[in-house]
Amino acid sequence: MTNAPLSILPEVADALAAGGAVVALESTIITHGMPYPQNVEMAKTVEQDIRDGGAIPATIAVMAGKIHIGLSPEQLETLGKTPDARKLSRADMAACLISGDTGATTVAATMIGARLAGIDVFATGGIGGVHRGAETSFDISADLHELAQTPVTVIAAGAKAILDIPKTMEVLETLGVPVIAYGQSEIPAFWARASGLIAPLRFDSATEIAAAHLMRARLGLTGGQLVANPIPLADEIPLPEILPMVEQALAEAEAQGIAAKSVTPFLLGRIFELTEGRSLTANISLVRNNARLGAEIAIAISKARRNR
Length: 308
Ligand code: PSU
Ligand code: MN
Fold this sequence. Notes:
Blueprint: E1 6-8, H1 10-17, E2 22-25, H2 28-31, H3 38-52, E3 56-63, E4 66-69, H4 73-80, E5 86-88, H5 93-99, E6 103-105, H6 107-117, E7 121-123, H7 134-137, H8 142-149, E8 153-156, H9 165-174, E9 179-182, E10 201-203, H10 206-218, E11 225-228, H11 239-255, H12 263-274, H13 278-306
Parallel strand pairs: 1-4, 2-3, 2-7, 5-6, 7-8, 8-11, 9-10, 9-11
Antiparallel strand pairs: 3-4, 3-6
Bound molecules: pseudouridine-5'-monophosphate (PSU) and manganese (II) ion (MN).
């Protein structure tokens, strides 16, 4: 058992105690990834998708000195209206907890919360990665190192074109993180289904992903798995269409001296404006798709454990 300051929503605690299927969700996507009120609508819809899939959702955030595992609808609403919430990665968790401030968890911090609560599966939109120009900026997301050390299976839609996708894949390979494309051979590129890069691993079923998660535990391997699930066809923005806007947003970030934690939120915000909201529709569609797959994987893990 953990001595960490967790506040677990009763519904989530009951599901975990019964060995049931729970899917963790992050909160930075709510506070820093999308505008209000679409962010709160997205968060509630995604939770419902997980329920419809037969699992229990647990959105994770830090509030009043506790890591909350599962938020009530009121807490989700409040968080969605707190754009100045701290953006928490591994480095920031302890400081935020002792301050009592509200903090939104990134992929890295959500993985830490999920592991503490005993949740195996976490669904999100995009992970942080190696930024373009990292050879001079050294901007590499702590999400990659978290994947290397915390045993949670993370479902995302691949790396975004604001990142350097080949370098992100190289770092994940170096860190020993399995990158699994779901249902196709190419690594998806967030808004686009195709990136032009073949994924190191491919699975076509939630059952195999669940089995690999459990096998990693049997082998005593540290770290999680990254599942790259392509955006539904109807909502994709193919790379040639999105790239000019990505280039423009990147140029503006550089001209304005945007750095460190502000880079990703700035780029997401500008691309939303430049695509006239189409990037947001795509983003919501892919998160929902990941949540549905997350529920399937969580159920498969739960069943496999019961049948042991
Ligand atoms: N990518 C998205 N939407 C997001 C993020 C990334 O498409 O909301 C957020 C996630 O919380 C991710 C974080 O963990 O940004 C990465 O930030 P950074 O690049 O500063 O590590
Ligand atoms: Mn960064």
